[in-house]
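User: Quick sanity check before I run a bigger batch. Here is a single chain. Can you write out its predicted 3D structure?
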Amino acid sequence: MLIPPVRKTWGLRGKTPIHPCHQLHDRISVISALTASPVRKRLGLYFNLYLDNISQPEVRDFLRYLLQHLRGPVIVIWDNGRIHKGKLIREFLRQYPRLHLEALPPYAPELNPDEGVWSQTKNTLANGRPDTVAELWWHLRDTLDALAFNPPSLRACIHNSELPSFFD
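Assistant: Done. Predicted structure follows.
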C-alpha cells in the first residue's frame, strides 16, 4: 500500500522521528513463489505484480508461468486461501499432471517460506514513502529482482520457516 510499514528507527533523544505519508489506500497485489530444486538445491524466486486484487484467473496464469520455467514435477505448497481453490484451479490441475498442490495447515504462516520473502521486502519499504503507485511498483520490482539474485537471502527464508528442511 502507499501507506508505508513502520519499523523502529533511530532518532535524536526527545525528538520522535516523523515520517509524513499519504493516507491513500492504493495498493499493488503480488503473487510469488520461492522455488527449490530437489537435486541441485538451486533456489529461485518468481513473482507477478497486479494493480487489482488477485483472483483465480491470476493464480492459474501464475501456475502456468511456473510450469513454463520449471522442469519435471512441480509441487506447490501454499496456504488455504480462497483463491487457491475452486473450479478453475481444479480444471487446471487436470490439464497438468506434473503439477501437485499441497496446502499448509490453516493459520500457519510460520510454515510458509514465502513469508520470509515478504518480510524482507517490507523491510526495504519501511519508513519510506512512495508518492505514486508507479513508484511503489518499481520499488517492489527492484527489491524482488534483487532478492531473486541473492541465494543466501532466499535460503534464509527457507531455514527461518518452520517447514521441515530438505536441505539438511
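The beta strands are 29-36, 43-50, 74-78, 99-103.

User: Great, the batch can go ahead then.
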